[in-house]
Design goal:
The chain is 74% helix and 3% strand. The chain has helices at residues 2-20, 24-52, 84-100, 109-128, 132-141, 143-151, 158-186, 198-201, 208-225, 235-241, 244-269, 271-276, 278-298, 302-321, 326-355, 374-387, 394-409, 411-437, 450-468, 471-492, and strands spanning 60-68, 73-79. The longest helix has 30 residues, at 326-355. It is globular, with a radius of gyration of 22 Å.
Amino acid sequence: MLSVLVFLPLAGGVIAALVAGRDKLVGGRRAATVSTLFALATLGVAIWLIADFDSGRGLQHVEDFTWISELGIHYRLGVDGLNLFLIALAALLWLGATAASPLFRPERPALYYLMLALGETAALGAFCAQDLALFVLFFDLMLIPFYFLIGVWGHGQRVQATTKFVIYTLVGSLLMLSAAVATGILATPEGGQTTFVIQDLAQRHLSTGSQEWIFLFFAAAFLVKMPAFPIHGWLPDAYQAAPTPVLIVLSGVLSKVGAYGFLRIALPLYPDASVHFQELLLLVALASILYGSVMAFSQDSATLVVGYSSVAQLGFITLGIFALRDEGAQGAVLQMVNHGLVVAPLFFIIALLATRTGGSDDLRAMGGIAFRAPVLAALFLIVALATLAMPGSANFVGEFLILTGIFKAKIAFAVIAGVGVVLAAVYMIRLYQRAMHNPLGQVESRDLSRTDLALLVPVVAVIVALALYPQFVLHRSERAVSTSVQQRELVLR
């Protein structure tokens, strides 16, 4: 079933490209319909995985066969509490992005939907991969479709944005590739068989010196993908240039692959290095929280407000992971899901508001429609309150667990991180206030259409459902999270 899950979107993208034909209008509709149906089927498989998941067991639905025997590389897929809900998040947001794409009328629809589908396959493959070489393959594969999605269908400074995105990501990917090869070779005992299976590598001990430089290479790749301060330079240009459907999955899903990599690979395989560089990563997390929050507060572009807020939120996730405590890591997993769920509707709402201001996402051009578009205002308010971690939301539970973990580990870092919680309230309230209540008369006042509601309501419903019962995620992720951090706790002791 995992191979079906991973390659079903790509199959849909290929079929969509074949049925698109030469007529841009009709072909675009056909391609969109086919891609959306396959994305819906992918989400159905992801939901089935959740329904079938046994929280008392470890890795499940394992597919494993030797791919390149001479190198010890396996095609190995599996699902556990670490990736279960990230898989569902990717499937849900990609379905929304695919279904929303016709609203933006992409040119060359055959190639567009093929690239969008390839991106989903790469992301799902990275989440499911249980072999280090296979993970690197899917991780690097994500670069190809997004190079085209931003470079071809982007707007504004799309060439500059694509160039920065490729340079940053490619450097990180090359570092990770060399680190992965070194891990497989250096971990092979004398006369033993080389392997890249993550569970097998976790049983083989690397020297402390080897762990440290390999860990730093992986950390650089993951932090670029998230992105984290100070290696976030590609973010402003890419976020402003990317089409809204692409931006939704770029921020909502791809950034989580980096954070997930720390839990799946860095902590289990390099426990000594994880402890040694704990404070360095915590400093990066704090810098991301404070920098992202200050920059979000100072932007007039609504897109960049949400973009820089993502830097801050990913900083909280990094903080939870490198608390090296069960509570912090569980909060990080929950917050990865939460952030993807809130950032997707935020970007879509910003796009809807931009259509009412003549195409601008400038907050100074927005406002004045809260009472004339009450449904839009209500949905926007729910998402905004969830983003700032209002008590009663699942984001509040995630941040509470993260802060609990970091208080137990490093109390000084926890106190400083608390400032980020306050700043989040400031920039999100400012965003909502200026976008909805500025006394401007030039904004077109109309509420959401049925299509808009069909795209927004399901995601908002999931946000509300997790707010009411976050234990749904926490219970199923507890065992895998504990396994991921237990070696680090032994080193700390």
